[in-house]
């Protein structure tokens, strides 16, 4: 492992100062164009270290990847429940009843913000299968993840709803001292790809292309499909992870219990998700739950916004094979 401490801190600082910078979505940090994605300034050091030092990947590891505001918390809860369905067959004492999904499935890049040795030790002590989250684009994942046999489950969301979710979220979690971001300002940024971990199109396409080239490595899911037929996708995830449900488990209702446990209605009402804060930024856990629906964009978009974003979706995703129902 390379030397750390003061020298490393200086190098991180020098790196940040050399990067193009943009204003964020009403947050107290700037966005920097790091490795072709808009990385929040407060995360660059951690992302950079995560790439360098996350070496001991296990074949049984699962990485849940997403663009922010695509249903990360939902897919974390589902993946955790599916991968552990032998360990926690009964939902009575299920960890999700007492622990927030972001705590059960920690973000890898954020785990490398503090003392690296401690964090690596903490990650190596996690019970297997270890399940991690990440917002890092595929191209910037550590080699160790790409080259090992660990699996990646990616969730993406129709950009229209992704934008609405993000605009509501960033304004909700912003510090009181900062002015709210108007919908027009946010939309302009979104259309230009400027949002934490954006551009959204390259984030989606990075995982999409890899899921086609390497379908045993990356499972690409859409929030809307998951909403439409959760049962089918829960089985698909289980098969992908190599822990399919037996006929007996299916008929005894294990899949249905998992779906219910992880449902928006259930999760948002759990005491553990209603109160308290999470992460370094101290985000209220309740702010991860808003409407949990598909198609809410119709309540926000003007015809000209619709026309503009449709054209961008068409242009950016053209020829990739990735499409969203109403835009195709
Ligand atoms: P909305 O703002 O449209 O309601 P992320 O977890 O990536 O931050 O995504 C947040 C979005 O997922 C929010 O969307 C939130 O309400 C929704 N969400 C949270 N839990 C969910 C669940 N269990 N099922 C479906 N959607 C969920």
Automatic annotation (TrEMBL):
GO biological process annotation, one example: sulfation
Domain of life: Eukaryota
GO molecular-function term, one example from the UniProt record: sulfotransferase activity
GO cellular component: cytoplasm
Sulfotransferase domain span: 59-321
Entry keywords, A to Z: Transferase
Name of the top EC class for this enzyme: transferase
EC annotation from Swiss-Prot or TrEMBL: 2.8.2.-
Homology family: Belongs to the sulfotransferase 1 family.
Protein name: Sulfotransferase
């Amino acid at each position: 492992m390379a030397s750390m401490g003061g020298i490393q801190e200086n190098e991180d600082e020098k790196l940040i100062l050399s990067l193009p910078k943009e204003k964020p979505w009403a947050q107290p940090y700037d966005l920097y164009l790091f490795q072709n994605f808009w990385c929040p300034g407060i995360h660059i050091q951690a992302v950079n270290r995560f790439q360098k030092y996350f070496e001991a990947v296990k074949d049984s590891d699962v990485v849940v990847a997403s663009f922010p505001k695509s249903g990360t918390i939902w897919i974390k809860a589902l993946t955790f429940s599916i991968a552990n369905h032998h360990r926690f067959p009964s939902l009575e004492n299920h960890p999700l009843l007492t622990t927030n999904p972001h705590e059960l499935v920690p973000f890898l890049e954020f785990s490398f913000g503090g003392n690296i040795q401690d964090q690596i030790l903490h990650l190596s002590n996690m019970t297997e299968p270890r399940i991690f989250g990440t917002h890092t684009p595929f191209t910037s994942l550590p080699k160790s993840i790409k080259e090992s046999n660990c699996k990646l489950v990616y969730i993406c969301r129709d950009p229209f709803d992704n934008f609405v979710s993000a605009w509501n979220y960033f304004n909700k979690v912003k510090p009181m001292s900062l002015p709210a971001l108007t919908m027009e300002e946010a939309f302009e940024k979104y259309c230009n790809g400027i949002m934490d971990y954006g551009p959204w199109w390259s984030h989606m396409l990075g995982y999409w292309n890899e899921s086609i080239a390497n379908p045993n490595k990356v499972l690409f899911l859409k929030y809307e499909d998951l909403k439409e037929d959760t049962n089918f996708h829960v089985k698909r995830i289980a098969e992908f992870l190599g822990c399919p449900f037996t006929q007996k488990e299916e008929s005894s209702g294990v899949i249905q219990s998992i779906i219910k446990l992880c449902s928006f209605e259930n999760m948002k009402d759990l005491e553990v998700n209603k109160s308290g804060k999470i992460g370094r930024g101290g985000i209220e856990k309740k702010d991860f739950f808003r409407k949990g629906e598909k198609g809410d964009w119709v309540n926000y978009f003007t015809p000209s916004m619709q026309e503009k974003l449709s054209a961008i979706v068409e242009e950016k995703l053209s020829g990739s094979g990735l499409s969203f129902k109403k835009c195709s």
